[in-house]
Amino acid sequence: MEGSEMKITAEQLANMVDHTNLKAFADNGMFEKLCGEAKQYQFKMVAINPAQIKRCKELLQGSPVHVGAAIGFPLGQTTLECKVFETEDAISKGADEIDYVINVAEVKNRNYEYIKEEMEQITEVCRRAGVTSKVIFENCYLTDEEKKKVAEIAKEVKPDFIKTSTGFGTGGATVEDVRLMKSVVGDAVKVKAAGGIRDLETALAMVEAGAERLGTSAGVEIVKEMQSQGR
């Protein structure tokens, strides 16, 4: 851990943060705050539900901060056709990045052909549009063997990222899961850790394990903590 702490700066860490507000009750004031903080701290992205894309796109106009839409969120239990339409609709409204939830039930059914088809179709929509694609596993519901299998599919399909969690399940990111996912995909696909990342120690542990993005609603506190240490 110490080696990674010495290598990464507060600015670099901030640029790995997907600044998140996916709450159903978030109002306009909350999104103004979210986008203002994202610009101030130079976070990579704001992670939002699709209904807020246009609003956040306007609030972030002229800044390098991306707008990311959560698709099939948070259960992943809409049909593939719905997820593809939702992806296309989000991109048409200005989304720069797509985080979609896999159909966990089909993983439990060992229907890996479905998981691959879902990943291929959504990743291809994103690829054609020049939009970043992220595949949310929701690891709290999966065995290690299932995580490995979905990661193997991702290594073949090559979305931009695979992601640990929605933050709405029974558990969030763990260092062990990040390390496991990265061990399978190697350099072919990046890993995003999300869910339960609320302090600097946890954030840096995820980076050390191989995460290149961090989904968190505590990005401001994390970066402030790092800045206070003079890094």
Helix content: 40-55%
pLDDT under 50 segments (min length 5)?
1-6
**Kindly, what is the distance between the CA atoms of the first and last residues, rounded to a whole number of angstroms?**
15 Å
Radius of gyration equals 17 Å
Q: How many beta-strand segments?
A: 8
The number of distinct helices, counting runs of at least 4 residues, comes to 11
Q: Can you write the helix and strand succession as a string?
A: HHEHEHEHEHHEHEHEHEH
Strand coverage percent: 15-25%
Shape: globular
The major pleated sheet works out as: 8 strands, parallel, barrel
Strand arrangement, major sheet? 1-2-3-4-5-6-7-8
Mean pLDDT equals 96
Structural class, from helix and strand content?
alpha/beta
Q: What can you tell me about this protein's structure?
A:
With 231 residues, this protein is α/β, with parallel strands linked by helices. The protein has an 8-stranded parallel barrel with strand order 1-2-3-4-5-6-7-8, surrounded by 6 helices. Helix 7 packs across helix 8. The relative contact order is 0.14. The N terminus is likely disordered.
